[in-house]
Amino acid sequence: MGEQASSIAGQIDILFWFMTLASAVITGGIALALLFFSIRYRRRSENEVPVQTEGALKLELTWTFIPLILSAFIFLWAALLFVRMSRPEPNAMEIYVTGRQWMWKAQQPSGQWENNELHVPVGQPVQLNMTSIDVIHDFYIPAFRQKQDVLPGRYTTLAFTATKAGTYNLFCAEYCGTQHSRMVGSVTAMEPRDYQAWLQGENNAESPAARGLRHFESYGCDTCHRQDNGGVGPTLVGLYGQQEQLADGRTVTVDDSYIRESILNPQKQVVQGYGPPSRMPTYAGRVNETELIDLIAYIRSLGGQQQEQGGGGDDSLPGAGAEETPGTGPNSSTDGPKP
Ligand code: HEC
Ligand SMILES: [Cu+2]
Fold first, then answer.
1. Closest atom of ligand 1 relative to the 259 alpha carbon
2. 53 inside domain
3. Minimum CA distance residue for ligand 1 atom 26
4. In this predicted structure, what is the pLDDT of residue 321?
């Protein structure tokens, strides 16, 4: 067993050992019974004919229900762990990760990009929002016992809390082409103090939202999307996390994937009252993945963060707030005139 370095690793190992032990006991039991019966009931003379047995209901029920209960128990246990692993912590630090043939890129909340490396603070819940630029990859940190496919065209998440400072292997666990085996990197968990110092050392970073604002202006998005509804397109202020009514009658939640689709494929989900056809040009092939991430960060910074988390309104606020803080000057100025 490898080193355990995340909050869930120990529990996954216990489940693993339980399954191994259960398999060993069952396999051993069957082997012993087989051996015992073949000696005990062996044929003793040439003309010996065994008594025909028609079946034994009790025995059959026993060997149906014991495995059934055992496997249902393992399923439930694993499912509970899986749910715990998939549920993002409300105060998680969000990091964007893109996979491509054949490297990983990760962007810190404060805007630094890292290649084939990821630095995280110990004890801080982290949520990775991941996408791929080309084919399917898979983000795998054995020491965290965490693994998640990374898909082109949508975002998947991986949540963990590192518990031990150190540098751990990062692998791509989905065969993705000739250099797949070289698609390796490292995850470094640091004490919060060291992490802050490391961040400071990586200077001249611009926050993703600030960079997103620059793209928003250079691609001319701001000519149609204004602070009020006076432009050709709807305002994006307060949009994130809301329910959006579409022209074809569907209602969708505005999340990263929706915004991404809206930019790359405007005709696919037209906002009610604005078409069809949408008057927004498609940006597929013009905006690249890192620009998309920045644009999404910028639109998120325009507010409207979720009210969905049921666990008491005050709980969700610090999370949203903490995420907003790295957004410096440009965000606060765009937040200002919010109606
Ligand atoms: C020529 C005007 C125009 C430009 C330029 C434009 N848009 Fe749009 N946009 C629209 C219109 C009209 C809609 C509403 C119809 C639709 O959903 O496609 C829209 C919808 C959207 C939506 C969905 C809004 C909602 O309320 O659900 C997003 C997000 C968006 N645009 C982002 C962008 C970004 C980012 C850019 C720049 C890269 C951009 N737009 C450039 C006109 C424009
Ligand atoms: Cu890969």
1. 29
2. no
3. 234
4. 37
